[in-house]
Amino acid sequence: MSVTTREIQALDSAHYIHPFTDHKSLSGKGARVITRGEGVYIWDSEGKKIFDGMSGLWCVNVGYGRKELIDAATRQLEVLPFYNSFFQTTNIPAARLADRITGLAGERFSHVFYGTSGSESNDTNVRMVRHYWETLGQPERSVIISRKNAYHGSTMCGASLGGMSSMHAQGGLPIPGIVHIEQPYHFGMAPDKDRGEFGIEAAGWLEQKILEVGPEKVAAFIGEPVQGAGGVIIPPKTYWPEIQRICDKYGILLICDEVICGFGRLGSWFGSELMGAKPDLMTFAKGITSGYIPLGGVVVGKRVAEVLIEKGGEFTHGFTYSGHPVACAVALANLDVIEREGLIERVREETGPYLARQFAELSDHPLVAGAETMGMVGGLVLMKDKSRHIGFDPSLDVGMVCRNHCFANGLIMRAVGDRMIIAPPLICSKEQIDEMMERVRICMDATLADLQSRGWMDADNQVHARA
Ligand code: PXG
């Protein structure tokens, strides 16, 4: 039975509330219907082939259509599609995967707690660190410090941990006990400052906040090694070691949210490894199964696990799908692929540096004021007048204009304000990076021509030149 794009769009518009979507504006256009994926490409219902420069949503690390993952799911579905991990029960893939993940995370870690998403896993972090301090007889240590423009999910707790002002504007967030400091965004906040010095200064905002709240009340600090949804904000090298020093000084727990950075994205198993941080807890999701099936969780360091297990009693927290056997079986197959194909080494030594060189060359484009990458993530900033560091009026939504040109030219790029983001699958070859970059250039040229024709480049520049 074949179905037309319009029929699906009509059903979708009538009945499906999408995440983070203004439905009034979508219903006029109709949603893009994605029907198929293979390698680094997806196809829409009109047969258009698109280079997926965002790996689905930062997750399809091993690319689409991997038989190993499909077979692992099928086998597990046949043997045991579901059983819970409550009531002193486990299953084989869940136990094997916990062993495998803690092995990859290194000797500071001993256990894994499972959920199905990054959001649930960050809720787990908050409940777990508070339970940790309660068990140690310090229940007043309950405040979690996070950062503005961070993304930690969309549940009440995840959105509160996150620092997205648009999310806090709805539904009375953040919930009590969660406070935020500024992010370490060198290009946006202090481009003229020495990068290293800025990193130390930005980490210092954590110490200021700890002192403001009272060190005896702070339970943990949470941060993404590289902020993803916030626009691929790569902190200066000095930042994370200084954050670690401050956490150590006050004895507060460090949570690294590795939902995007984990499982190879930056060229290491976990981003914190590269950043010089030694987290007590790490959130994971997305890349653990390359997005083929939902799975998330927390890798728990020995410092927390020992207290929880030896003294914590029952931790009254868990989900129906904690340790879902099919999800864990797919994760094991996904880790096999990553290891067998040496994807992490390849990103670190070959394709990551290659992408970095290609991205740096984009800086010669009149629209591109800054371009940086780490492993297989990259962000570039569009500016109206880059020589004078003048951005576009945010109400023009120039990132969205650019994103539409990307779609039209067969490339998925994500817009965060006027930052354009890529996070291609880790299997991306050098030739595919060339192909992606060729499309990026075409899209930048198309965007520039469009902005000029709207009078948003030259006319505005002249206004500034006169001012
Ligand atoms: N932490 C981080 C660092 C994330 O990037 C989550 C937690 C939440 O995961 P779940 O599985 O609950 O969605 C994320 C998710 C975007 C975008 O627009 C990014 C995410 C989700 C949706 C959109 O870049 N990241």
Question: How would you portray this structure in words?
Answer:
With 467 residues, this protein is of the alpha/beta class. It has 2 domains: 32-62 and 342-453, Aspartate Aminotransferase, domain 1 (Alpha-Beta Complex), CATH 3.90.1150.10; 68-340, Aspartate Aminotransferase, domain 2, CATH 3.40.640.10. Helices cover 44% and strands 15% of the residues. The chain contains 18 helices and 15 strands. The protein has a 7-stranded mixed beta sheet, sandwiched between helices. Strands 1-2-3-13 form a 4-stranded mixed beta sheet. It has a 4-stranded antiparallel beta sheet with strand order 11-12-15-14, with helices on one face. The chain starts with a helix and ends with a helix. The relative contact order is 0.14. Mean pLDDT is 96; it is low at 460-467. The protein binds 3-[O-phosphonopyridoxyl]--amino-benzoic acid (PXG). 3-[O-phosphonopyridoxyl]--amino-benzoic acid is lined by residues 57, 117-119, 122, 151-153, 158, 224, 228-229, 257, 259-260, 285, 296, 414.
